[in-house]
Design a protein that fits this description.
four-stranded antiparallel sheet; rod-shaped; mainly beta; 18 strands
Amino acid sequence: MDFVSPDAAMHATVSTGDPSIGELIYLSPGSDPAGTSHASIRFRFGVTGVNGTFEIDTCCVAPANHLVFVDANVTNVNPTFTKGVETVGTPPPPNTPPVARCQPVVKNADGNCVAAVTAAEVNNGSSDTEDGTNLTLTLIPAGPYPRGVTPVWLRVTDTGGLKDSCTTTVTVNDVTNPIIACPGKDSVECQSAVPAAATNLAGFVAQGGTASDNCGAPTITFRGDLAAGSCPRTITRTYRATDGSGNFAECTQTIIVHDVTKPTITSCPKD
């Protein structure tokens, strides 16, 4: 077997089927592979099965062009050597990357129209062969998240620094009704003096009403007047505040129409 790089460590696996105690012979160029007198380096090891793993370091000797296995009786055996990343003895298992598993998350918006979500809530059983569930979870972006649907990435990192990621969504729903307060009670003497109903938030506020919502200014709509009686006449006026998610709240204003002014006689008929 020829070395490709004589200055690099050579890792080899021997498969001989010989359970005896033997030596790995590292031969100099031009030497007889069946002999033992020209060995530059020898490594004695016990073969416990059909496979043995050992290491030869070529940094300190001339390049070799043969590797042979010699058993305890100096009977030459030609095993199969495979270059690879191996260690003397039983090599540790390789560190495999974790597997990220995501799940969508749905939350209700808070008073600021956002929702906080943790990486653990998005995690759906991410795991690692070596570390199990002992993983570092990172959610990107970190939030808090606004109303609506936000794509997110869950990154999982094992103790060896290997990573995996998955994508999902965070959905934030606004389920909070607006807050509305109608203008105060009003009294007029004539029907013609009844104020016109407000048709928007600015007009509603101008008449003394207030309205707010956790996700922005609501829309004000006039729902109608309901009149009862004649003198006095009571008008119940209804307003509705609606937010961007369709949540709404209503209030009523009372307007009394009561004529309490006596008529004035400007002139009487002549006698």
